[in-house]
Design brief:
The structure is a homodimer. Helix content of chain A is about 15%, strand content about 35%. The radius of gyration of chain A is 18 Å and the shape is globular. The first copy, chain A, has about 210 residues and is of the alpha+beta class. Chains A and B meet through strand 1, helix 1, helix 2, strand 4 and strand 5 of A and strand 1, helix 1, helix 2, strand 4 and strand 5 of B.
Chain lengths: ~210, ~210
Amino acid sequence: MIFILENDIYGFEKNYRRNLINSISGFKSLNLIGTKNEKGSENLALFSQVIHIGAMPPLIGVLFRPNAMNSKRHTLNNIEKTGYYTLNHVNSKIYQQAHQTSAKYPEGISEFECCNLTPEYILDFYAPFVKESHIKIGLEFVEKYIININQTELVIGKIKHIIITNENAIEEDGQVKLELSDSLTVCGLNSYYTAELIEKMPYAKV
Amino acid sequence: MIFILENDIYGFEKNYRRNLINSISGFKSLNLIGTKNEKGSENLALFSQVIHIGAMPPLIGVLFRPNAMNSKRHTLNNIEKTGYYTLNHVNSKIYQQAHQTSAKYPEGISEFECCNLTPEYILDFYAPFVKESHIKIGLEFVEKYIININQTELVIGKIKHIIITNENAIEEDGQVKLELSDSLTVCGLNSYYTAELIEKMPYAKV
C-alpha cells in the first residue's frame, strides 16, 4: 500500500510530480485539435484534457495551460481569433504521429506536414480536420474561463459537425461504439492504450 | 460515412442525443465520489466528467449537472458544506455495483450500503473512501465555476491524499500504471471498458 500526502507531492521532483498527477485521475480521451490562423497557416496539437460539458446544446470543454507557462499557444490563439477548431480522435494507426505533434516546432511550421497527417476540409468548415481520424468534431468557440488557482484556461465549444467514417459505429440508442472507430485512450502524457468492452449496463433502477 | 450537423443534433430524440454527445468526445475516467454530510450520512456517486487541472498545486476538476435539472445533489452539497470528498477508481470487480449507485435512491439512504461497497476512513480524512477501489484520492474543495451557457458546475479540488494499493503501480518516472490497479474506462454513461497498453512513447523532439 502506497500513501502519498499533499506535502509529499510538493517535495517530488517536478517531472515525477507531473507524471503522477497527470495519470492519477484515470484514463483520458485523446484528440488532435486542428486550427487555422487568419492567414491560413494550419496547426495541429494533441490534447487529453477534454471534458463533456453538456448535450443540449452540445458542448465540449478543453483545458489549456496558463498563458505565462506556455510559449506555444497557437491552438488557443487560433480558436479565439477565428472561432473554429476541430477535435479528431486518435487511433492505433496514427498515435505515433499524433504524439510527435507535441514536439516544439518553430513558428510557421505546420504539424500536419511535419507529422505526416493530412488536413481535410469538410462542409466549408474553417478549421482543418485530420483525414486519418475516424471520428471528427467541428466546434465553434463559445466561452472561456480562467481558473483562478492555477491560471489554466477552460475553453468551451459548441458542436457544429460530427463526422464518423464507420457507419456501424453509432448504436440504435445513439451511443458511439468507440472501438469500431479504433479510438484510443491515454494515461498521463504518453502511455497509449486500446480499450475493450466488458459490458454495456442497462439504466440503473432502485 | 456519417455526417451529423448541429441542427440534426437538436432534432434527435432526447436520449439518443444524450448518448451520442456523451460518447463522442472519447473515453473517460471512471470514479466513485465519496462524501459525508455534516450529520455523518455517507453518500457515493459515479462520475465520468473528471479532468486533470494541474500538477502544482495538484488539482482535479469534476463537472456537475445544473442545479435546476438535478434533484439529487447530495454529492455537491456535501462537498460545499464539508469541504472534503474522495475519488475512487472503478475496477472490473466493482463496476456493476458502481453503476448501481446511479439509481435514484431516496434521501437518507447510503449508496455504500445499497450497492454493497465498503466505506473506509483513512488518515482521519473526513470523507469516506471506497475500500474495494485500488486507487483513491482525497480532495479538498477549492473553487467552483458555474458555466454560463448551460449552468453546469465545475468543482475544483486540491489533492490531499493518494492511496494506491498495488506498490508496483507507480513507475520510476512517477506515472501510474492504471492497468495494474485494474482501473476501467467508460464510453458514454454505461459502457465499461478495460484498457490495454500499446506503447509508452518517449518525450517528443523535433
